[in-house]
């Protein structure tokens, strides 16, 4: 072995423990579904404009308003604009349940971008899956608003009395409850937002790392002529997809969805930054670690602690649909052009961080290989292989995970209505909530 090859081998060996973790089995324990086309009415004092949403999602995007409801056919069978606000995009679960046992769940910015979502209101919910019936009850929806002008920049509904927030202002992706406040991590700034449990914004916190502000391309201070890696470092849709509340310290650990950019505009590495914020003082503490992504993973979906030091992280690729139906050539109705291959729930040990700042991966489960010996799946999956006894979660964005009890976790997807499929060819994805039995994963250390 040459000296060069020896050094290469040693380097690979040194890097291996960060991503070398144990694969644990998972079994489907229950399955509930919130239908794709689930709509809610906006608040009575919201502008009339909010009664029809998705008006800027046509072929010309924000350049041309489409006002006729359901006049734009969708690739997956659901037309838009919608009458009302879509109850889609479950983008984060809070670790703490409400007093009645319901789950705090967050809806994202609406239709995916700042430009096409000015008529999408921002809100979070309290939901309860009923695994006996396979349904999901929405007990409350809370709309975010800024009547006290706490948001430092001009919002889309600036001149209105209630000042409801929209998808043109923020992209909410993660949520935690601290005392009587809700904390939301978002992606445009990226910012952390503090609000009351009835939706009134109390403060907005920019991201500070190493004494400087980290920004994304949709930050209000970033111009169209800005340079990636210097004027902004957080990629678009790369903000706080995950934000975990640490039980012992009370700190919020905010995880960026994608690797930040180096000064030359390229990703700094195959890892994600995780930074600590103290909700009691409203400052970033300077504590941080790095989450190493597995081969093939491009982003994370959610992040929640299960005890004082161990936490669950969803990591994923950008695919959707069963790999057995991968297109062999051009996109076609009977295949998935980019199927799901890497969809994991990873257990990490935040007390174990190596010299490079990489947190230790204890183990993971594969969401594309869940045992279903009892046939509990409520929906069929399109596939060109035998899935008897196997349940898969073949969605683009899987963005919710929390500890359910000592042996189970709850996982859910963001269905990106009306732009994502996954379970069935040509059909819009539903919001699915799955209860997984994973005792081996939860007891690993």
UniProtKB/TrEMBL annotation:
Residues 1-20 form the signal peptide. InterPro entries: Phytase-like_dom. The keyword Signal applies. The keyword Signal applies. It comes from the Bacteria. Residues 85-416 form the Phytase-like domain. Keywords: Signal. This is Phytase-like domain-containing protein. It comes from Meridianimarinicoccus roseus.
């Amino acid at each position: 072995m040459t000296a060069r090859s020896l050094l290469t081998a040693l380097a690979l060996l040194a890097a291996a423990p960060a991503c070398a973790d144990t694969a644990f089995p998972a079994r489907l324990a229950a399955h509930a579904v919130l239908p794709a086309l689930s709509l809610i009415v906006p608040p009575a004092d919201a502008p009339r404009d909010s009664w029809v949403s998705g008006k800027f999602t046509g072929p010309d995007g924000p350049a041309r308003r489409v006002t006729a409801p359901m006049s734009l056919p969708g690739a997956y069978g659901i037309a838009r604009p919608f009458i009302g606000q879509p109850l889609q995009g479950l983008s984060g679960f809070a670790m703490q349940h409400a007093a009645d046992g319901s789950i705090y769940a967050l809806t994202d910015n609406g239709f995916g971008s700042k430009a096409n979502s000015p008529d999408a209101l921002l809100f979070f919910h309290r939901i309860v899956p009923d695994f006996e019936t396979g349904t999901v009850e929405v007990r409350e929806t809370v709309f975010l608003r800024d009547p006290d002008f706490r948001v430092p920049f001009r919002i889309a509904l600036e001149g209105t009395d209630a000042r409801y927030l929209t998808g043109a202002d923020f992209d909410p992706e993660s949520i935690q409850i601290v005392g009587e406040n809700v904390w939301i991590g978002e992606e445009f700034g990226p910012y952390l937002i503090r609000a009351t449990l009835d939706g009134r914004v109390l403060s907005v916190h920019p991201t500070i790392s190493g004494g400087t502000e980290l920004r994304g391309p949709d930050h209000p201070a970033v111009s169209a002529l800005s340079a990636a890696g210097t004027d902004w470092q957080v990629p678009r849709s790369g903000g706080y997809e995950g934000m975990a509340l640490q039980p012992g310290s009370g700190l919020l650990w905010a995880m960026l969805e994608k690797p930040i950019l180096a000064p030359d505009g390229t990703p700094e590495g195959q890892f994600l930054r995780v930074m600590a914020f103290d909700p009691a003082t409203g400052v970033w503490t300077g504590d941080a670690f790095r989450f190493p992504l597995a081969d093939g993973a491009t982003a994370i979906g959610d992040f929640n602690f299960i005890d004082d030091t161990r936490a669950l992280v969803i990591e994923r690729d950008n695919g959707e649909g069963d790999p057995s139906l991968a297109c062999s050539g051009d996109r076609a109705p009977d295949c998935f052009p980019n199927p799901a291959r890497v969809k994991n729930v990873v257990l990490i040990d935040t007390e174990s961080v190596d010299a490079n700042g990489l947190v230790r991966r204890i183990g993971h489960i594969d969401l594309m290989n869940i045992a279903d010996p009892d046939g509990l799946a409520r929906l069929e999956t399109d596939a060109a292989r035998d899935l008897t006894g196997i349940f898969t979660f073949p969605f683009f964005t899987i963005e919710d995970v929390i500890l359910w009890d000592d042996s189970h976790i709850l996982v859910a997807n963001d269905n990106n209505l009306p732009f994502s499929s996954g379970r069935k060819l040509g059909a819009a994805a539903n919001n699915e909530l799955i209860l997984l039995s994973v005792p081996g994963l939860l007891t690993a250390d």
